[in-house]
């Protein structure tokens, strides 16, 4: 994720205005080593998601409604699939389903195609909030953009319950005013 100085993860409804060449390179490098990507349906609807550069890499789109553009390249190519609650509406798109009423993210991640070891979550804030609440984030890569943007853009997590999960800061880099930080989940009980 990339966030402004004041914590917003969107500018004009998208992340591009907060990003930089180096930030995009970090994202693409992480993608190149990830086995599979997951992303919230809201981000796919607002940012548009294409086919990953890495051959065979798949993108799981997390949704309750299944409301995605099935004709988009992401789904028409077969790279995209949906991650839905068991009782979500029928869809023509390949789906991983878990949980009744509410998506069971932990169970869904266990059912991902290819049993990936490294799953990269690319936001947005609502999906991040659910992943954080379920303590499913092992590592967080966050870029702080040198922009103050005001407005009411979401923080890196939203719509989740309050939690207190401690992470260790393991990498910190500065490039052209942008701060790149990598945090790893500290083992042990949460507060
Ligand atoms: N700065 C960054 O690095 C960055 C990265 C990504 C996105 N963004 C920005 O963030 C904004 C989108 O964030 P967002 O929070 O609105 O959307 P989001 O998290 O991408 O997607 C929200 C949607 O995902 C589905 N969803 C989320 N949590 C779920 C759960 N626990 N179970 C089932 N489905 C779930 C629902 O889909 P349905 O509505 O289909 O049911 C929900 O409406 C955009 O402006 C985007 O540009 C910024």
Summarize the structure.
This protein is α/β, with parallel strands linked by helices and 191 residues long. Helix content is 20%, strand content 24%. It has 5 helices and 9 strands; from the N terminus they run E-H-E-H-E-H-E-E-H-E-H-E-E-E.
**In terms of quaternary structure, what is this?**
single chain
Radius of gyration: 16 Å
The total tally of domains equals 2
Share of helix among residues?
Answer: 10-25%
Principal-axes shape call: globular
CATH fold description of the largest domain: Dihydrofolate Reductase, subunit A
Structural class, by secondary structure, is alpha/beta
User: Order of strands across the widest beta sheet?
Assistant: 5-4-3-2-6
User: In total, how many beta strands?
Assistant: 9
Q: Report how far apart the termini are.
A: 24 Å
Sequence stretches where pLDDT stays below 50 over 5 or more residues: none
User: What do the pLDDT scores average to?
Assistant: 96
CATH H level of the largest domain: which superfamily? Dihydrofolate Reductase, subunit A
Description:
The chain is of the alpha/beta class. It folds into two domains: 1-33 and 125-191, Dihydrofolate Reductase, subunit A, CATH 3.40.430; 35-117, no CATH class. It has five helices and nine strands; from the N terminus they run βαβαβαββαβαβββ. It has helices at residues 21-33, 41-47, 73-76, 105-110, 125-133, and strands spanning 2-3, 36-40, 58-62, 80-84, 95-97, 119-121, 139-144, 167-175, 178-185. Strands 5-4-3-2-6 form a five-stranded parallel β-sheet. It has a four-stranded mixed β-sheet with strand order 1-7-9-8, with no helix packed on it. Strand 3, helix 3 (73-76) and strand 4 form a beta-alpha-beta unit. Residues 1-2, 9-10, 13-15, 18, 40-43, 46-47, 62-65, 67, 103, 122-127, 130, 154, 158 line the site of NADP nicotinamide-adenine-dinucleotide phosphate.
């Amino acid at each position: 994720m990339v966030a402004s100085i004041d914590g917003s993860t969107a500018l004009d409804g998208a992340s591009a205005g907060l990003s930089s060449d180096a930030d995009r390179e970090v994202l693409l490098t992480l993608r190149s080593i990830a086995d599979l990507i997951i992303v919230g349906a809201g981000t796919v609807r607002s940012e548009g998601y294409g086919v990953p550069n890495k051959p065979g890499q798949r993108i799981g789109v997390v949704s309750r409604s299944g409301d995605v553009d099935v004709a988009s390249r992401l789904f028409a190519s077969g790279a995209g699939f949906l991650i839905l609650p068991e009782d979500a509406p029928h869809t023509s798109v390949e789906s991983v389903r878990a949980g009744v009423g509410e998506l069971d993210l932990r169970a869904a991640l266990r059912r991902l195609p290819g049993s990936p070891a490294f799953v990269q979550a690319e936001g947005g804030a609502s999906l991040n909030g659910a992943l954080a609440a379920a303590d499913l984030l092992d590592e967080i890569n966050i870029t702080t953009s040198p922009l103050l943007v005001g407005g009411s853009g979401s923080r890196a997590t939203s719509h989740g319950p309050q939690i207190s999960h401690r992470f260790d800061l393991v990498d910190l880099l500065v490039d052209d005013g942008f701060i790149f930080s990598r945090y790893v989940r500290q083992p042990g009980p949460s507060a």
